[in-house]
Amino acid sequence: MNRIRKIRRNGFSIVVVVMVMILVSAGVVVLSGICNDMFFQTRLSKSEADTRNLTESGLAWAEVNYKKISASQAGKEIVLDVSKLEIPDCGLSVAKSETAENTVKITTRQKYHNKDIEQTRTLSQEYSR
User: Fold this and answer.
1) Contacts of residue 63, Cβ cutoff 8 Å, sequence gap at least 6
2) What pLDDT band is residue 2 in, cutting at 50, 70 and 90?
3) What is the pLDDT of residue 72?
4) How far is 80 from 61, CA to CA, in rounded Å?
5) What is the DSSP annotation of 61-94?
6) Among 60-64, 65-69, 112-116, 125-129, which is the least confidently predicted range?
7) Which residues contact 104 (CB under 8 A, 6 or more apart)?
8) Dist CA 47 CA 50 (whole Å)
9) How far apart are CA 73 and CA 70, in angstroms?
10) What is the pLDDT of residues 3-12, one digit of tens each?
11) Which residues contact 99 (CB under 8 A, 6 or more apart)?
């Protein structure tokens, strides 16, 4: 009789351990999905911030150099060196508008998830320098 009770207790302990393992593994699966979403959102936010930084850098360059761009260069893209910004796989170009006064076209290029993303913004501003 004692032997049967001991076997039942051992069997019950194994069932409890298996149930706990199932619950823990379900929790790990749920948490890994949440972490994956957070990782994706973080990379997307960084990409958007990098694009804003590139655009602002182009605008700052245009403020300093707008008057120096000759009429013959209007409409042609001037590719800027952005290596010091330490943004991987990116590019920035600025072009003075041929038609509108005090207007520049800023083009940013960036890789995100092995896709090339190019954004062009036309900005108008008073350039006093």
Assistant:
1) 125, 127, 129
2) low
3) 67
4) 9
5) HHHHHGGGS-GGGTTS-EEEP-GGGT-TTEEEEE
6) 125-129
7) 58, 59, 62, 66, 94, 95, 96, 97, 122, 123, 125
8) 5
9) 5
10) 666 666 677 8
11) none
pLDDT in tens, 61-99: 888 887 777 666 777 888 888 888 888 888 888 888 777
Q: Is 94 within 8 Å of 61 (Cβ atoms)? A: yes
Scanning the structure block, which residue is given the tokens 């520049």?
A: 104
Tokens of 16: 């409890």
SS3 call for 117: strand
Phi, psi of 73, deg, nearest 5: -90, -5
Coil/strand/helix, residue 103 = strand
